[in-house]
Amino acid sequence: MGFCGHRKLLLKVVISCTYQKLEGVPMSKQTFKPLNIGRVMAFNEKQKIYGLAIESKIEKGNLRKLTELADSLGITIQYIQFSMEESRKPTVNAIAFLDFTNSKASPEEALEILLNSYNFIKSAKIIKPCGNSVIFDNYFFPLTVANERAVIFRKSVYEALFTGVREKFGSAGEAMLYYQGFSIGFEIYEQYVKIAKSERIEDLIEVAKAINMTLGWGIADDVNIDVKKGHAKLRIYQSFECELGKDEEKPYSQFYRGAIAGIFTRFFGKDVKVEETKCIAKGDPYCEFEVRAS
To answer: Does 30 share its domain with 162?
Structure first.
């Protein structure tokens, strides 16, 4: 499926990285800043932090008007996140954490001013803190990514899952992780085609890069695909799986390697073998995978 009509036309494609690279600095030396998407904030007892869940029409200048209102009331915007998947949708949802410590208005008064002053606000709801030091988004649920429900696993959770399977079942557990990854990769390939709205290899690789990075799996780079020979090579920086195997002194990927195998099985239309030739678990600066079609 997917590329069947294009295989005879494609010979060799080298995909260049489109990340925000520093000029002249190799990817292994690049630094990326983490982004907290937890929608949870801790604060001290002297602060008055409240949340605000908003549904707003999309109009020019709306964000400026909201920040000006916050400034006029002495409210500090500590955190804001928008939820929007398609640019043509007329409304957007947003969650904000606001510091009312030095505000001349209460959260209820600020909400009343907001609703009475701006007709682009379709709805708004106050989110109260939990106890004296934590606030979280208890309004929006479930999480979605690319129109599918998503679940976030913190490192402590997926570490227990992955290392637990390895420790309890040994090599059988590693095989289990590989085939789980393979099933995911095999199925997700079709999703890449739908998201890209294209079957061009360049478009699919860019979608794969974006999803891998935004979901925290790793940073794909230096993707080299030779369609005629049925061969591919790619690098993954900061693989979430292989970071768990630091100091193992051998290639550690099973789940991620399986996902790569599943994707390329769909792409080449035949069975593939995927070998991890470099791995951060054994001290390499990145994980490198070689894919060969049978």
So the answer is: yes
